[in-house]
Amino acid sequence: MKNFDLIKLPFNKQNPITVQVLGVCSCLAVTAQLKPAVVMAVSVTVVVALANLIISLLRNTIPPRIRIIVQLVVVSTLVVLVDQFLKAYMYDVSKQLSVFVGLIITNCIVMGRLEAFAMSNPPLPSLCDGIGNGLGYSVILVTLGFVRELFGSGSLWGYPIAEKLGLYGIGYENNGLMIMPPMALILAGIIIWIQRTRNKDLQED
Amino acid sequence: MFDNLRRLIDKIKPNFVEGGKFGWLQSTFEAFETFAFTPNTVTRHGSHVRDAVDMKRAMITVVIALMPALLFGMWNIGFQTSLNAEDWPYELGTAASWWYCLWFGFLRMLPLIVVSYVVGLGIEFMFAQIRHHEVNEGYLVTGLLIPMIVPVTTPLWQLALAVAFAVVLGKEVFGGSGMNFLNPALVARAFLFFSYPTHMSGDKVWIAADLWGTDAIAGATPLGELAAGSLPSDTALDMFIGTVTGSTCETSVIAILLGAIVLLVSGIASWRIMLSVILGGGAMGLLFNLIGANDYMQLPFYYHYLMGGFMFGAVFMATDPVTSAQTNAGKWIYGLLIGLFAVMLRVLNPAYPEGMMLSILLMNSFAPLIDHCVVARNIKKRERRKEAVR
């Protein structure tokens, strides 16, 4: 039950983006379309889950003074693996994501979970915590990607919905602001607003 | 007639108070009642009246100040079409044509104003209802400003979307009138500018082709011509009077100055801000004149006052008492930087022909910081004085 809670909490009260406000940079950069957002979400989930597991296994042997460097080595190894995998099997998405796959190394969620959780917890809870945080991040990313692609490009997963529905014929137009990163920030803000309205214990003062 | 209305309101009032049948509609009812009649409730404890000007009166004064620009803008909409349309029902230059210009512009402006008020007030009422606040008058001015600063051919659904965005995310999310840090009317315009650039810039949006629809006749604004690398084809006098293309009500400097007089005499807008915006724009214009690297830089500095939305922004937008700096020294800094940035954006960035909107929004977000610095400096100064006396 406790492990299940670790997976469940990041969806709402401990969400990495809307509550801890971590990983915002990539959430603005890769969510203009749904496909890269989903790929990015999966990549981060894999990296944070495995990194949590590995660091948790090593936690008693890592000298505290150099723990950040050890964590970085583990994370970068995983990120390079993910990057090579994407280049091999999903080259077009990998090009769209460009540097942001590499930048998972600096994603605050990964380092934050390693420091705050994996360093002081056994492997299984750490794995669950990693999966939970990765999925909590994914929920926001996919939501933003869905809304931004639908209203910004009139399509979903590359399928031109607005055109097929004949919306352009009656004067509909795509919203240019949706494709720009600031709109992702505004949408994330709206999600935070809704979440805090529904959750009284998240409200400050 | 008023007696009957009073009696009707009194009769249905019990339904709308706390615990009544429609108790949840309390603030909507209250808004309409105080719109029709002066409230008869009396303050029981000591009251703190500092000035006879309450928000309602201040807002009405601003609306009055906007009237010259609005009327001229309506006439100019028709006038621009009459110059360029293939079939205009009256001979140009006749009195009949003159009046028809005003009528044509009125019919073009009316849907924009109606959409702006219906959507904006609808959202305001909704939020007041949910939060159990009173509906206040802040939107009266914003709702009129928004249609005045967009091109006449803006599609109505886009305007409605922009108004909803501005009212919810520019204002209500921060707590409603008086709490917003960005000017809501400019938020609406910025939303349109970045969302639907083909309807907000270029040279095929400024002149309505006919009474209905969003078709436009080609015609560049002076700023558009400059951004494209040529000099404005309109004379300075035309631009001063306002018979040029542009957003609906921003073209006439004379009409805006009439509004400025109303605002300054009534003391609602700050003369420091208006003056400093104008000085800042002039200073930047003169600096570019000194550099003189291209035709745009060599343009006489006073042209910047006459073109685009500079004067409209300086008089009606920058002076918004909620979003501008509050301290006197802060107002000077705030205004000067608005003018500087507006002219700098115009001349140096061809992607944005008009810099006024962006520079006011930028300085809106810096206004609290400016105030903070001014206040901190003042505190330090007074402490030093205290030390000296001791």
Task: List its traits.
heterodimer, A: 205 residues, mainly alpha, 11 helices, globular, B: 390 residues, 2 domains, two-stranded antiparallel sheet, 17 helices
Low-pLDDT runs of chain B: none
Task: Give the topology string of chain B: H per helix, E per strand.
Answer: HHHHHHHHEEHHHHHHHHH
Helicity range of chain B: 55-70%
Which series of helices and strands of chain A comes N to C?
HHHHHHHHHHH
The whole-number mean of residue pLDDT values of chain A reads: 87
How far from one another are the termini of chain B? Answer: 71 Å
Which class of secondary structure composition applies to the elements of chain A?
mainly alpha
What order do the strands of the largest sheet of chain B run in, or round the barrel if closed? 1-2
What does the overall shape of chain A look like? globular
Which range does the strand content of chain B fall in?
A: under 5%
Integer tally of domains of chain A: 1
Percentage beta strand of chain A: under 5%
Number of helices, counting only DSSP H or I runs of 4 residues or more of chain B: 17
What is the CA-atom radius of gyration of chain A, in angstroms?
18 Å
The SS-based structural class of chain B is mainly alpha
Count of DSSP helices of chain A? Answer: 11
Number of domains of chain B: 2
Architecture overview:
The complex is a heterodimer of chains A (205) and B (390). Chain A is mainly alpha-helical. Helix content of chain A is 67%, strand content 0%. Chain A contains 11 helices and no strands. Chain B is an all-alpha fold and 390 residues long. Chain B folds into 2 domains: 2-36, no CATH class; 55-378. Chain B contains 17 helices and 2 strands. Chain B has helices spanning 2-16, 26-36, 55-84, 95-131, 138-148, 156-170, 184-195, 197-200, 222-227, 236-241, 253-266, 271-291, 295-298, 303-306, 310-317, 328-348, 356-389; strands at 207-208, 216-217. In chain B, strands 1-2 form a two-stranded antiparallel sheet. In chain B, strand 1 (207-208) and strand 2 (216-217) form a beta hairpin. Chain B is globular and about 70 Å long. The termini of chain B are far apart. The interface between A and B is medium-sized, with 11 and 13 residues.
